[in-house]
């Protein structure tokens, strides 16, 4: 039997301090979330007051944190006077859905448009239905996706109605009420696939020859149309080239995503973008600022400053305990303010490093001036960890004199051109897009031809890279780009 040995082992382990943890969390927040978070911290800490000072000279006033620190140094520390206790470091709620007080109202715009679901329910209210039918129809509307499609199986909806709403229905009734919803605006809503969506919209249009032909094409030759086999369609349906062009014109006017016509103010997609940075170009100089947020000057509410003073002078245990509570809350506020300062410095330094690295681009916004840049490049310039740079870049935006951009936009990998110089992949994508936009749509360029075209412009790109960039730019294959 093997003997069991015991021993001591010493090892180093890196552990983040509470201040570092709090700073990291604040760095991740975009500015509108940060503003709300500051409001929540102030509301959770009764000792702190950030309201402007008012009243006359004789009125008791709030006390700044620096004044409290001076009193501690002159009259002994709070730990010495009241006994030492662990600091009270609260755990703050980090998820918010609304904005805080905004001193720049031009950014704080609230949407008042009617939501997609509300619009459909309002139209439902004008129909003469029984209470049971209205319940079933409302359930169907609530099951639509954001783009206006119903992608649930009808039998599954029937089961959901029974289990979740306690309503007995049938697939036939659900389909009948779905047909009713498909009569609502925007046209095409409630469709179960793209073909049905387009057909619903065509059925609502005036019956011209082109509309009639378009209905025939989608009804009888949808797969061929989807794959742009126009010659096959013309042969099968005996259409001339002019008639086929009329069909394509009609279908191009249709909306494949009817739910997108109405702004839903309650979805993430409808939230406004609020820039964290502002970059101005004045007299040949790039000037960076963070005007949306400044570190608040926090003061101790005079009621609690009196508790502090009484506790320092009193021998009462109750007064000392009250003063210790106030001290814990003050320490909590000091930690929070220091985390805010570190966040401010980290964001500003990172953004300034990005501007310095991409200086030529920020002068006029010419995309071809963007240099290849990865997180490591900025980490080396700032001295921050790559993970810190990633947190700064995530969910942050900058307002420039040529537009508003997410910080992620300025990062891209690099490839070599024929001179051996490193160029941004964004520049290559721009060249690819220009080639596709300028191609003969009757005979679009294949991926091999795109490779040759880019090589002629000085870019060495593999065929698989072209396919990857096409997907990123949402450019279909050559066959699907062909037009009559």
Describe what you observe in this structure.
There is one protein chain. The protein folds into four domains: 18-93 and 297-336, no CATH class; 116-261, no CATH class; 277-295 and 344-365 and 372-407, no CATH class; 414-481, Homeodomain-like (Arc Repressor Mutant, subunit A, Orthogonal Bundle). 50% of the residues lie in helices and 6% in strands. It contains 22 helices and nine strands. It has helices at residues 18-28, 31-44, 65-75, 78-82, 116-125, 131-142, 154-164, 171-181, 194-203, 209-220, 222-226, 230-237, 241-252, 302-313, 317-357, 359-364, 375-382, 386-393, 425-437, 447-456, 463-472, 478-481, and strands at residues 48-49, 63-64, 277-282, 285-289, 299-300, 397-400, 403-406, 414-416, 422-424. The strands form three sheets. It has a four-stranded mixed β-sheet with strand order 4-3-6-7. Strand 6 (397-400) and strand 7 (403-406) form a beta hairpin. Helix 17 packs across helix 18 (386-393).
Q: Quick one: biggest sheet?
A: 4 strands, mixed
Helical content, roughly?
Answer: 40-55%
Shape: extended
In total, how many beta strands?
A: 9
Q: Termini separation (Å)?
A: 86 Å
Question: What percent strand?
Answer: 5-15%
Number of helices: 22
Notable characteristics:
single chain, 484 residues, alpha+beta, 4 domains, 4-stranded mixed β-sheet, 3-stranded antiparallel β-sheet, 6% strand, extended
Question: Layout of helices and strands, plus pairs?
Answer:
Elements: H1 18-28, H2 31-44, E1 48-49, E2 63-64, H3 65-75, H4 78-82, H5 116-125, H6 131-142, H7 154-164, H8 171-181, H9 194-203, H10 209-220, H11 222-226, H12 230-237, H13 241-252, E3 277-282, E4 285-289, E5 299-300, H14 302-313, H15 317-357, H16 359-364, H17 375-382, H18 386-393, E6 397-400, E7 403-406, E8 414-416, E9 422-424, H19 425-437, H20 447-456, H21 463-472, H22 478-481
Parallel strand pairs: 3-6
Antiparallel strand pairs: 1-5, 2-5, 3-4, 6-7, 8-9
């Amino acid at each position: 039997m093997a003997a069991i040995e015991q021993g001591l082992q010493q090892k180093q382990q890196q552990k983040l301090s509470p201040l570092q943890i709090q700073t990291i969390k604040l760095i991740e927040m975009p500015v509108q979330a940060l503003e709300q978070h500051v409001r929540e911290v102030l509301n959770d800490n009764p000792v702190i007051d950030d309201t402007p000072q008012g009243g006359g000279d004789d009125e008791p006033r709030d006390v700044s944190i620096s004044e409290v620190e001076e009193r501690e140094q002159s009259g002994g520390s709070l730990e010495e006077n009241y006994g030492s206790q662990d600091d009270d470091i609260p755990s703050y709620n980090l998820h918010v859905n609304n904005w805080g007080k905004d001193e720049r109202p031009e950014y704080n715009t609230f949407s008042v448009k009617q939501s997609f679901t509300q619009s459909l329910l309002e139209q439902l209210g004008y129909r003469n239905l029984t209470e049971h039918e209205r319940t079933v129809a409302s359930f169907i509307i609530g099951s639509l996706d954001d783009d206006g499609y119903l992608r649930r199986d009808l039998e599954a909806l029937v089961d959901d109605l029974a289990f979740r709403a306690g309503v007995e229905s049938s697939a036939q009734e659900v389909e009948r009420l779905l047909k009713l919803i498909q009569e609502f605006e925007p046209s095409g809503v409630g469709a179960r696939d793209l073909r049905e969506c387009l057909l619903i919209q065509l059925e609502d249009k005036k019956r011209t020859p082109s509309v009639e032909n378009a209905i025939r094409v989608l009804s009888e030759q949808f797969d061929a149309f989807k794959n742009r086999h126009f010659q096959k369609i013309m042969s099968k349906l005996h259409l001339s080239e002019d008639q086929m062009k009329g069909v394509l014109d009609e279908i191009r006017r249709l909306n494949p995503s009817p739910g997108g016509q109405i702004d839903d103010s309650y979805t993430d997609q409808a939230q406004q973008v609020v820039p964290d940075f502002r970059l101005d170009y004045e007299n040949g100089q790039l000037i960076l600022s963070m005007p949306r947020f400044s570190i608040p000057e926090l003061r101790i509410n005079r009621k609690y400053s009196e508790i502090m003073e009484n506790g320092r002078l009193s021998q009462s245990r109750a007064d000392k305990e009250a003063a210790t509570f106030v001290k814990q809350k003050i320490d909590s506020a000091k930690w929070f303010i220091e985390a805010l300062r570190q966040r401010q410095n980290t964001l500003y330094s990172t953004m300034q490093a990005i501007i310095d690295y991409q200086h030529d681009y920020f002068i006029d916004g010419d995309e071809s001036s963007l240099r290849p840049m990865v997180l490591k490049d900025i980490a080396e310039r700032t001295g921050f960890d790559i993970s810190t740079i990633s947190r700064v870049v995530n969910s942050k935006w900058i307002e420039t004199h040529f537009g508003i951009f997410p910080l992620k936009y300025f990062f891209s990998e690099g490839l070599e051109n024929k001179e051996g110089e490193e160029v941004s992949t964004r520049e290559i994508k721009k060249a690819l897009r220009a080639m596709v936009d300028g191609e003969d749509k009757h005979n679009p360029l294949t991926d091999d031809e795109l490779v040759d075209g880019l090589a002629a412009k000085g870019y060495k790109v593999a065929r698989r890279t072209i396919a990857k960039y096409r997907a990123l730019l949402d450019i279909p294959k050559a066959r699907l780009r062909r037009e009559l």
